[in-house]
Every structure is written in C-alpha cells, then in structure tokens.
Design goal:
Blueprint lengths: L24 E4 L19 H7 L5 E4 L2 E3 L3 E3 L12 E7 L4 E3 L6 E4 L5 E8 L4 E3 L2 E3 L13 E6 L2 E3 L2 E3 L2 E2 L5 E4 L4 E3 L2 E3 L2 E2 L6 E2 L3 E7 L2 E3 L2 E3 L2 E2 L1 E2 L3 E6 L2 E3 L2 E3 L2 E2 L6 E3 L11 E3 L2 E3 L2 E2 L7 E4 L3 E3 L2 E3 L2 E2 L7 E4 L5 E3 L2 E3 L9 E3 L6 E3 L2 E3 L6 E3 L22 E7 L5 E5 L12 E4 L6 E8 L5 E7 L12 E3 L65 E4 L5 E4 L8 E6 L29 E7 L19 E6 L24
Parallel strand pairs: 1-2, 2-6, 3-7, 5-8, 6-9, 7-10, 8-11, 9-12, 10-13, 11-15, 12-16, 13-17, 14-18, 15-20, 16-21, 17-22, 18-23, 19-24, 20-25, 21-26, 22-27, 23-28, 25-29, 26-30, 27-31, 28-32, 29-33, 30-34, 31-35, 32-36, 33-37, 34-38, 35-39, 37-40, 38-41, 39-42, 40-43
Antiparallel strand pairs: 4-5, 44-45, 44-49, 45-48, 46-47, 46-49, 47-48, 50-51, 52-53, 52-54
C-alpha cells in the first residue's frame, strides 16, 4: 500500500514550561485502585491519566511498578489523517508533563492486543517519557499508525524504554508523524507492521512526512514488516539515525534493516545514517537486505554486515534514484544477494562512494550501474572483526512439522550436521540433526533439536554462531588491534562522540601520533585500558572496558619481551636471542573474568626477573598476542582454545 497522505506539515516548537524535577512530583500506583488517590507518595493516584491531566507544566508523574491496562478514548485535534479518530490509548501525554516509570520490565503499559499504548499530540520539546515497557498495542485492524507509541507533532524525548510486542499498519513499535522527537537508549524489539492483505512500513519505527527526529543509541532488533523497513522506515524526513544497533529484522519486501523510501509531491528528504551497526537483517522478496536507500540518504561510518536480500539485489545496500546518496567510511561485509552482494546501484542512481571497505560479499562486492572498486579510497580488505556470526539465513517455519525451510544466501557456507544455531537471539541452542536439499533450488530444509517454532507475529532469521547459542555474548562487530581499518578514515568530520557500543571515538589506535576515527560503527579494541597487577597478584583491567568479555591469560618469564632474531621466541635472561619453544608463554588461565576480578596469580617471579602477561579475548576465535616493537606478530604457540 502506498502512503498517499498529503497534509500541511507544522512542527510545533512549543516553549518549555520546565524540566523534569523543576515542578511538583505526582505519584501513581495501581495498588491504590479501586480508590482514586490524591497523588502523594503516601496516597498515589490509581490512574496514570488522572495524574497527567491534573499536573501542571514542569511537573513529573512517577509510576510505580505494576501492569497498567486501563484505557480511555479521546479525539485527536490535529489535521493529520490518523485512524481511528477518536483514538483509544492507555496514556495521552501532555506538553511539559514528564512521565517516569520505575524502569523497563517494572512499570508495564499493556494495551492487551487492541488500540495504542500511548499518544503524544502537540507535546513540546523536552517532555520526557522514560522507564516503561510498552506492549500489547495493535492498530492493524483499522489500518492505523503506531501500535506502541504515536508521536504526532512536537518534540518529546523517548528514552530508556522497552517497546515490544506491538502491531500496527505503519510503525509497529512507534510511528512518528510531522514531529521531531529524540528517541534514545530504547530497546525496540518483537514488533510488527502491515498485515496479510496489504504492505505496511516500519516494523520497529516508522517516520513520515517532513519531520526531523534524532534516533540514537537504540537496539532495534527482531522486528518484522509485511512490506518494507523491518527495523526502520523513513519517508519524507530529515531524520538523523545515529549509533544504533539495527539487527535481525525481517522485511517481506525491501529494506530488511532500514527502508529510506522514495518521496512524492516534490518533497526533498535527506536522512543521515551515521555510525550504526546494521546486521543480520533480511529482505525476503525485495531489495536492500541491510539498507534500501533513496533520495538524499547519507551513510557514513556504518558497519553493514551479514545482511541478506534473499531474492533481490543489494545484500548490504541498494541505492535508488538520481539524488545525492552518499556512502563514505563504511564497512560493508559478508552480505548476500542475487546481484550486488555488498552494494547494488540502480541505473537511476549516481551516488558518491568514498573510503569504504567492501569485502566478502556474495556473489560480488558491487552490482548494477557502478563499480567503484579501488577508486576514491574504496578498498576490499579483511577488517579482522571479532564476535560476528558465521552465517545468517532466512527461514520459513513449517508450523505442522519440525522442518525449517531455509533460503541459503551464502552458497560458500552451508549448514552442516551438528551446527548449533539460534532462532534470532532467543538464546536456545538448537543442533542441526538433518539437512535436505533440492537440486537447482536455493532452499534447504533443516531439522533441529529442539524444534524451531515461529512466533505468530514476528519471524526471525536463523543465525549460526561459532560460540553456539549464548545469550550473554552478543555480536559487537569490533575489530582486532592490528586491523587495517583502525584510524583509516579522514578526520571523521561527522563522527559522533560515542560509537554504537557507547565507547568514545577518535583515538590514536595505530599509535602514529594522529588520532583518527576507525572505519565503521565500532571503535577499535586497540584502545582497551591497561592490565594492572595489584597487591597479592590480583589482575584486572584499569579502568574496566565497556564491553565485558572474558580473556585467555598468558604469562611468560624472563627480563624482556624483545625478540631480537624475530623467531617468535623472546630473548632470554642474558639478553641473547631465545631458544626455548615456549614462545610468549603458555596459557595461564583460560576464559577468566578480569572485571571482578576473579583471578589472582599465586606465583611470583624469580629474583631479577619479571612476569609478562598477555591476553586474548576468549568469547570469539582466538587471535595473536599482539605486535612487538618492530610490528612483528607475536605468535601464539600454545593457545588456550
């Protein structure tokens, strides 16, 4: 279904009436019900809406733990053709009245599978909505917008919420119309858009009609659309989409991760995708497994990895249209499609493509009207990533048996008997026990133990990970210290202060005296802090890194780490080239946690000697033991694995 609504757009920049904490605080607790309450800490209101309606601009309404389901119906006053009108929801927000829950998973707004959860109409800049689980919204029966949240005009702040299990025709989790909200630090998962009769847009978030939201540091994962834009759909918008993780979303048509739609009515839009991890998304029958880009879409410093356009073009990215699409300083790797595994350029498009690493895409890095290989700083080198999946495939679950029909998007890496796979990120290890193939057909049938049973609302890809199904380990798409993409950009003129994992950017990762941003969405682990040996032999990182990996710890003795003759063996205590076959030490402690810390070395070095400790990350394939002062690889002769 094509979005054909044309309405005068008016973004209301409403004057702030006060920040959270400046006004009074009103309390809500469903344990007060059926009494009304007075809104004090000792006698909270029963109803969230009662507290909102009685509050003054600048006041804060604090909602206790509980499940809140009571709804009311009110007319919408703006010109936008939102259906239905009057609308029904649990919460109707008011300008400058801040709503705070006790935290996602604690304060739960549950619409029970009908109507919306919350509506923001003419809610001005800075009004905060935070700390809730938003679930159970469903407006598909009325061809409606925004199953979880509907943001209509204004510029509220939506932060630290979990938005899950909602359905709508447009914007399963959230719909943004004519508005400029800040959407930050939320988990948006398991939402769906469209229906079996017509195609909707935006399984996770749908943004439409001349608005300018800032969408940053969200996890947008496991959403589905019977149409285009599994994670996020953008239409006639100048949205800034920055430092998000957009992973494992599925679109029946275009844009498994992101769908930046062609506009109508002569409207120009220029969405920016900056510093995002866009991975493991699937476009089932259309184009752009990771991103379908049109208009003036800009893509800079993204990691676009392991996406699939199963029956279409552009596994990582498809570009469409004659306007100013730009791709710069991205990592585009291990994507698959019918043509243009990395990027497919439609004959109508003429984008600027500079400084990207496009590698290991199938059947080729580029397809369509342009092949920028080796030009304008584009290259094809292994970025040496860690914690990435081995293989991602789309699946259609046969609900009446234990067979899974999987579209094989990467013919060089088939499933094998004994593989441990996950259905999305459900954390359940499933062993492949049987494989059936058909000659000449890109489909295979898997039997797993236990069976895969598809969620009625949201299908997921099947992901093969070398660490099996371990929910404590997530893909992070960082790179090793010796990666060629470290400090490989220019100065990163548009680089955000923090990368997609919340780590600071713009470090001197290659120690050449010039701090530059790394390619892609994640700053290199070359900037990990130092390993400190404290009193009593206690070992721990100082300060702790942001990402809690475990480490294989190695120890070697002697007086130096120097390797004069370059044979992989450090010099001996006498300063002469070493001869012992122990390289840079043996495995001292496999997979230890250096955060607690929970490892203490009981030994002390002999007089006149020291212990050297070297570490490798344990939650992925084990790598080298770093580089010596001559940039030679320290070999790992006795790995812990």
């Amino acid at each position: 279904m094509t979005r054909g609504r044309t309405v005068l757009c008016l973004i209301l920049c409403l004057a702030a009436g006060g920040a959270a904490g400046w006004g009074a605080i009103w309390y809500v607790d469903d344990n007060t019900c059926p009494a009304i309450g007075t809104g004090t800490l000792g006698n909270p209101y029963c109803s969230i809406q009662t507290a909102i309606d009685l509050a003054q601009p600048g006041d804060t309404v604090r909602v206790a733990e509980g499940r809140y389901t009571a709804k009311l119906t009110r007319p919408l006053t703006t010109q936008a053709p939102v259906l239905p009108n009057p609308a029904t929801a649990i919460v109707f927000m008011r300008d400058q009245v801040h709503l705070e829950g006790a935290g996602a998973g604690k304060s739960i707004l549950d619409a029970g599978g009908q109507d919306r959860v919350a509506i923001f109409e003419n809610v001005g800049a800075g009004t905060r909505f935070q700390g809730f689980t938003v679930t159970g919204g469903d407006t598909t029966s009325r061809v409606g917008d925004g199953g979880g949240l509907l943001i209509l005009y204004g510029a509220p702040v939506i932060t630290h919420n979990t938005i899950m299990g909602n359905r709508a025709f447009y914007g399963g989790g959230m719909e943004v119309l004519y508005a400029a909200p800040e959407i930050q630090d939320n988990v948006i998962t398991g939402n769906a858009a469209g229906n079996d009769l017509e195609s909707g847009t935006g399984g996770g978030i749908d943004v439409a009609f001349e608005c300018s939201p800032v969408i940053t540091h969200n996890l947008i994962t496991g959403n589905y659309v019977h149409g285009s834009g599994g994670g996020l759909a953008l239409y006639e918008t100048d949205a800034v989409v920055e430092s998000n993780q957009i992973e494992g979303n599925v679109a029946e048509l275009h844009g498994g991760g992101v769908f930046s739609a062609p506009t109508a009515n002569g409207v120009t839009s220029a969405a920016d995708l900056l510093g995002n991890i866009i991975s493991m998304n699937v476009a089932r029958s259309g184009h752009g497994g990771g991103v379908f880009a049109s208009e003036d879409t800009g893509m800079e410093l993204n990691t676009i990895s392991h996406n699939r356009a199963m029956l279409g073009d552009g596994g990582g990215v498809l570009t469409l249209g004659p306007k100013g699409i730009a791709l710069s300083d991205n990592i585009i790797d291990h994507n698959g499609a019918v043509s243009g595994g990395g990027v497919f350029f439609d004959p109508t498009s003429s984008p600027a493509v500079t400084g990207n690493d496009v590698v290991a895409n199938l059947p080729a890095e580029f397809g369509g009207a342009l092949d920028p290989s080796g030009a304008q700083g584009n290259e094809s080198v292994d970025p040496l990533m860690i914690n990435v999946p081995d293989f991602v495939a789309d699946v259609q679950v046969d609900r009446f048996s234990n067979l899974v029909v999987a579209t094989d998007g990467e013919p060089t890496r088939q499933f094998a008997l004994g593989d441990v796979v996950e259905y999305g990120d459900d954390g359940i290890p499933r062993i492949v026990t049987q494989i059936k193939t058909a000659v000449g057909v890109p489909l295979i049938k898997l039997v797993t133990d236990p069976w895969i049973t598809e969620n009625d609302i949201v299908p997921h890809p099947v992901v093969l990970r070398r660490w099996g199904a371990n929910p404590s380990i997530r893909e992070n798409f960082g790179v090793r210290a010796n990666s060629p993409i470290v400090d490989a950009t220019g100065n990163g003129t548009k680089a955000p202060a923090l990368d997609a994992l919340g780590q600071a950017r713009d470090f001197d990762g290659d120690l050449n005296g010039q701090a530059r941003v790394d390619l892609g969405a994640v700053e290199s682990l070359a900037e990990l802090p130092a390993l400190d040996v404290g009193p009593g032999g206690v070992l721990q990182w100082q300060p702790y890194p942001e990402v809690p990996w475990h480490y294989h710890l190695y120890r070697t003795g002697g007086t130096v780490l120097r390797d004069t003759d370059g044979d992989g063996v450090p010099d001996g205590p006498d300063g002469q080239p070493g001869t012992a076959d122990d390289g840079y030490g043996v495995c001292l402690a496999p997979g230890v946690n250096l955060y607690g810390p929970d490892y203490t070395d009981p030994d002390v070095p002999p007089p006149g000697q020291v212990f050297y400790y070297l570490g490798t990350i344990a939650d992925s394939d084990e790598g080298i033991l770093g580089l010596d002062s001559h940039d030679r690889v320290r070999p790992n002769l006795h790995p812990c694995d």
